[in-house]
Amino acid sequence: MFIDFRSDTVTKPTPLMLEAMMNAKVGDDVFGEDPSINELESIASNMFGMESALFCPSGTMTNQIAIKGHTQPGDEVICDETAHVYQYEGGGIAFNSGASVKLLPGDLGRITAEQILSAINPDDVHKPHSSLVCLENTSNRGGGSCYDFEAIKKIYTVCKELNLKLHLDGARLFNALVAKNETPLQYGELFDSISVCLSKSLGCPVGSLLLGKKEFIKKARRIRKVFGGGMRQAGFLAAAGIYALHNHVNRLTEDHCHAKQIAEAISKKEFVQKVLPVETNIIIFELNNSISAPALVAKLKGQDILGYAISPNRVRLVLHLDIKKEMVEKTITIIKSL
Ligand SMILES: *Cc1c(COP(=O)(O)O)cnc(C)c1O
Question: What's the CATH architecture for 251-337?
Answer without folding.
Answer: Alpha-Beta Complex (3.90)
